[in-house]
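Hi! If you just cloned this repository, the fastest way to understand the data is to look at a raw example. We've pasted two of them here, unedited. The first protein comes first, obviously.
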Amino acid sequence: MINEQKIVISLDCMGGDFGPKETVRGAALAIESYEGPSNLEIVLVGKTSEITQYMDTVNKKGLTIVQANEKINDDEHPIEAMRKKRDSSIVVATSLVKSGKCDAMVSMGSTGASMAASVMILGLLDGLERPCIGGTFLGLAPNTVLMDMGSNIDCRPNLLLSFGLIGSVFAEKFLNIKNAKIGLLSVGSEPAKGNKQVQESYKIFEQSGLNFVGNVEGMDFFTGKADVIVCDGFVGNILLKFAEGMGTVLRTFLKKNLALTLPDHDIDDLVGELWTETNLARSMGGPLFGVKSPVVLGHGSCVSHEIAGAIVSAVKLVETDMVAGLEIALSSLFVHSNDELK
């Protein structure tokens, strides 16, 4: 339930490559930069002895600590680790949301463990088979939503349809895009193009009642043909990582080739902007859609300002009541699907 006076975010403080140092700093930065209508508080979940080492370096206003004795590492099997480490920071942070003490959870830790904890502790919304990670990922295309970014590698057509629905609600809530245009990522715009998965999904999307504009191609992330572009997590994660890699190599390329023509500070500004344009998802995190409370996941190598961005995204999920919006949209989709079957 949304508290209009106060929003409390549960932060897995041990997660990521640089936790708890960067997570503490990110939490403080998020509170400092937040300008919304509510009072923002952040619960830092993890080993108190380690977290307190960095508390003196930040403004402690709005920050509290909840002890968790264990951490789930990236190389551990998510579900097995959850069962063995019930006092891990991810499990405790998620449980705080389930209990109603916090409104949303943020983690830079193991994606698999965060997803497993979210599904098992918070539960899935009615009508969904699996959760998915999505959102905007390119600064060069800030109003184009990608669903899924890597949480579901093998997808049946019905699962892709749910991604499209989720993406349309996100586009409305976050980007103020009404009746978002939904496209299915393929190798051509014609209905017969694409692999078996895409061809079968095309038929289902046509009958869904969603604002489906047909197949779109890779260049359409920038053309505005679709507001939401749907693909399985295998393709989506490749796109995400390709954009990140492109930003890194172009940053090195520009520094080298502009060194003789521009001052260093101008080059730094340019390559910094380029990095943001190709790595937008890092600066705002990836919302995990489909569970019964807001959850935002971030890259393990995120630093303080990127962690702060993920926290701000979680706050916006709470403020816009994204979960309730999804529940309404799912109900409408069921009604339309039932009518089609009659």
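Ok, and the second one:
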Amino acid sequence: MTIKKAMILAAGFGKRMLPLTIKTPKPLIKVGPKNLLERSIELLIKIGIDELAINTHHLSQEIDNFIKNNNYGISITLTKEKELLDTGGGILNATKKFENNPFFVLNPDTIWSKNYYEELK
């Protein structure tokens, strides 16, 4: 079975990354030339994902703007959590969106590089 859907967890406050996350949501922190969210999206596209859900909360408008300003060529849905739902709540929301279809869940905290491609594939 080929998994075509994925979720990226991007709603947290990034408290361990303070003071960087006061004005920048953790998924948009750059490591080298790319931010963490960008690395996650590119990896998922490379393994064949065509539908992506991203939950947001802290500084959600920054993530919204980033997605609007970048065309990744796949369906990306942003879900703003009014109250932080934590990991389980965010994933539960994605199960509603994806219904009975399997999906990957990625935490953008990891620096996703080409080395992960074979493992996910």
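That's it. A detail worth noticing about the second one: The beta strands are 5-10, 30-31, 34-35, 51-56, 75-80, 104-106.
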